[in-house]
Amino acid sequence: MSDSTTASITLAQSSQRIEFNTGCPSLLHCLESKKIDVAFQCREGYCGACRAILVSGNVEYNEEPLAFVREGEILLCCCKPNGNISINLK
To answer: The whole model's pTM is what?
Structure first.
């Protein structure tokens, strides 16, 4: 696995930018590695506790989440950015 940057994540509330590296398995993992406190429970896309708002950009899911995801929401535990994104943490 490479540690090369594949995308940047902007936290819309604070304008903080975080680099997403190819070695990160999910947005949740990446945010945790940068000491960003994010609510979560299952880490598998079942519960929806890690729900966030996708302000701009696109994500790809590692596996289709089982939790209901509304338009404009993402589950941080089971997706990766597909290019640069901006999110609001709940």
So the answer is: 0.90
